[in-house]
Amino acid sequence: MEVGEDLLSLLAEEEQALSQQNLEKLPDITLNKNNLIQKYLHLRGLRQQQLTPLGLPKEESLYTKWIYLQNNSELHQLWENLSQALRACQTINASNGMMLQKLTLSNRNAIQALVGKDPTQSIYGPGSASSNISNFNILG
Q1: Residue 86: pLDDT band by 50, 70, 90 thresholds?
Q2: Percent of the chain clearing pLDDT 70 (strictly above)
Q3: 124 falls in which pLDDT band (50, 70, 90)?
Q4: Of the ranges 5-9, 77-81, 98-102, 133-137, which one carries the lowest mean pLDDT score?
Q5: Ramachandran assignment for 28, one of left (phi > 0), alpha (psi -120 to 50 degrees), beta (any other)
Q6: Measuring CA to CA, which of 48, 68, 98, 130 is 20 to 30 A from 61?
């Protein structure tokens, strides 16, 4: 549960940084997100090792059904809290992705304007490699 709450908090921090265009915070946030994801994957493996012998299905999509078959209201509440936190993470992450996409597009258009290139054309070549800017007419 702690990892889910930590991720939710971190995504909210990312959302705030993006909405305020405080891009200096993003590298640290990204590093922390990666660390949390690694921690989650490790815990998921441990969970599967311990609970599979007790009948936990290997497919995560079946966890909710298995959990509610257990006669344990505390477990039910923990699972519900975790599920809610993860749904909130998905929503915020999708929103953050859209904000990042808008910022990237805006920055790309600004760079293209600075180098004298039509903003409707990509400054990136095949495979998203940067094009050689020596081919552009630098303004100023």
Answers
A1: confident
A2: 83
A3: low
A4: 133-137
A5: alpha
A6: 98
Question: Which residue from 103, 131, 128 is spatially nearest to 117, judged by alpha carbons?
Answer: 131
Integer-rounded Cα radius of gyration of the chain: 22
The H-assigned helical ranges of 1-140 are: 2-19, 26-51, 63-69, 73-114
Question: What's the whole-model pTM score?
Answer: 0.70
Write out pLDDT tens, residues 34-81.
999 899 899 989 988 998 898 888 888 888 999 999 999 999 999 999
Contacts of 131 (CB under 8 A, 6+ apart): 122, 123, 124, 125
Gap between the Cα atoms of 67 and 16, Å rounded = 35
Contacts of 21 (CB under 8 A, 6+ apart): 103
CATH of 2-121 given 1.20.58.300, 3.40.980.20, 3.40.50.1260, 3.40.50.720: 1.20.58.300
Q: Coil, strand or helix: which one is 4?
A: helix
Would you say how long the chain is, in residues? 140
From 139, 136, 140, 104, select the one nearest 117 (Cα to Cα).
Answer: 136
